[in-house]
Amino acid sequence: MAQVLVRDLDDRIVARLKMMAKAENISLEQKFRDMAAREAMDVEARFEAASRRSREQTRGSALDSTALIREDRDL
User: Matching InterPro entries, A to Z (predicted)?
Assistant: First the structure.
């Protein structure tokens, strides 16, 4: 497994994260792992949602791009 060293974190942020971890009865290290995993999954979910919206918006388009492509080639 990979290791990550995070430098120059604000002391107040670290203190807050320690309190959050303690409230959840987990280590600060586990809190960071959970946060990183959640963020990675959220990014993937946002991408999938954006892709789905894009597909839905373009589904069934009556646009025929053939004429536009020919016009561009003729320039």
Answer: FitA-like_RHH, Ribbon_hlx_hlx
